[in-house]
Amino acid sequence: MIAEALVELQDVRVRFPASYNWRGKPTGYVHALNGLDLNIIRGETLGIVGESGCGKSTLAQLLMGLQKPSSGEIHRARHDNSWFGSGMQMVFQDPQSSLDPRLPVWRIITEPVYVQKHNSSRERRELAVTLAEQVGIRKEYLDRLPHEFSGGQRQRISIARALSSEPDIIVLDEPTSALDISVQAQILNLLVELQRQRNLTYVLISHNVSVVRHMSDRVAVMYLGQIVELGAAEKVLSEPQHPYTRLLLDSVPRAGRALDEGIVDKKGELPSNRNLPMGCYFRERCPLAGDGCQMPQELVCGAGGVVARCHRVMPERV
Ligand SMILES: Nc1ncnc2c1ncn2[C@@H]1O[C@H](COP(=O)(O)OP(=O)(O)OP(=O)(O)O)[C@@H](O)[C@H]1O
Q: Which residues cross the membrane (predicted)?
């Protein structure tokens, strides 16, 4: 395992039963992740992009310990695969539905740490006050219920809750897409500032190129449950190596537009993940498809240390 890697995934596959015979035995599967190799490095923000259905949420659940791999290996710096011991927390897209509406905010913020340590109410309150200050929620508001806050404030509460158990990694699942444009930047800046202060590690799932560019150190591009390109964010987003990444970025005519909005118009739907394509998974939609694409593709290291799953990538000379 690489020294500073907090999590390392090796050839991880996840499939879900999709049809059953009369005895209740699965006869077909949805192949959500299909051989994922990935490590997450302490202190980085790793952006995950790809079309709807490519497996981003399944990857998030796997990291959180909420989903088991069907095959492959996950190595963690913390040797506990349960969700509360895995050193992971998550900030969800919609703070409205991810906060318990019946609990006062101080209880919500300290819930993860209470589950782990069963600390007293006084200790929980003290921790809630500290965390609320760090995310910009006034301590006088800690007895209020979630519906008494605005969307941006609720997302601040979600972030405080994620911080409470001092996780190794926080998975940010579209953390600003449900918020007004005016507060999106404030939440992103808060996340950046907290990361700087606490050396946090983020896995950022987003359809928004500007958000990914603003936040990420590395970007992983997913297609049909595989990583097709991975490398430094500025390289992947400005000089993409894989034809799929190029198509994704080309279909974003202006900043702020969702990454995959245009690609379906141009190239049709993602192929079915019930019957995975032979050879390169992207072949049917690839403008450069030709000889050599009938074979399954390996990740090749190209310019600037970016790896891409395409035989056309020119290997980097050392
Ligand atoms: N519990 C499940 N049972 C059956 N199929 C599932 C399950 N969870 C996910 N899938 C399927 O696995 C594939 C990957 O889904 P996933 O939610 O990980 O994609 P995604 O990239 O997060 O999509 P989105 O951006 O729309 O959230 C999809 O085809 C989805 O229908």
A: none
